[in-house]
Amino acid sequence: MSASTASPVAGSEVPSSSTRFRETRRFDLIDAARGIALLAMAAYHTTWDLGYLALTPENYALAPLGKVAAHLIAGTFLVLVGIGLVLMNRDGLRPRAFLLRLARIGIAALLITAATLYAFPDSYIFFGILHCIAVSSVLAVPFLRVSPVAALVVGIVALATPAVMANPDYHLAVFDDPILSFLGLGMLPPRTNDYVPLFPWFGLVLLGLALARLGLPAFMRSGLSQWRPGSLPSRGLALAGRHSLAVYLVHQPLLLALLTGVVTVTGPHPKAGMAEFRQDYRTQCEATEGNAQTCRVAARCVADALQRENLWGIKGRSFNVEERAKAQALSQSCYDSADGPVVSP
To answer: What average pLDDT does this structure show over 129-156?
Structure first.
């Protein structure tokens, strides 16, 4: 996932050249920045896992703030991909190192698809962050030699394209075909646990590439290029950044295994799924016969009643005939009560 995976270099028949390549293509500051992004990603995935396993009242990773965080983290990685491509190939494209790096990322992406297809068949990852990095790395190669201003302009166009295509006057129905979902130009996003389509995200790779090509001379002259991690945390971040692909592949299975053990011992959070239930109830209620205020009051009443009568459970709980009849009676009673004099929810 990063330029750090390209340490084995062509031309190993000249040891001094290999050493020089490692020294000039590896910057601890860039590795540490990638390590910080990995730490943020792990925090986000922990939040997602807690919600998925019903250890929190709701899945905060899917809330608006959580989605913003996810986009910022993905964007940081993709900008760093562009920077890494420049650092790895600054003296000319190194086909062997580039292809080895691409193969590692591509194989890892396929493993992610296979694993999530098994674990989450309805929302498996078919074009996530690794898929985007692999394809973007190939598409970015020509921009290593053209003007960095051209890379900047094309990057901005790539970022703006989805917003333009979302306009009905410019939208092309062909992009709604599921087989083209990886482009990100359809009207409706696919159901998947990680979706990083080429547009707009390829634009960030090009912005990182342009930034590196324009700023590398100044960076090399500054003290930042000579920065070395001194403290244990900074050394840990730099180390993680140097092995970002391995960290990415390993951290989520470990987190899920650990938190699955926790939920096995503690059970789900007593209010897990309640906010989602109330929202679903309100949506269905308003779509049938109720006004917004009545449905809002009834939704809270039904959720509380189900919990009080020990009929509340995490999503997917099945009722027997007696429980279903009782739940329906509680729902009707709550709606009738809410439909009378307005009560504060």
So the answer is: 97
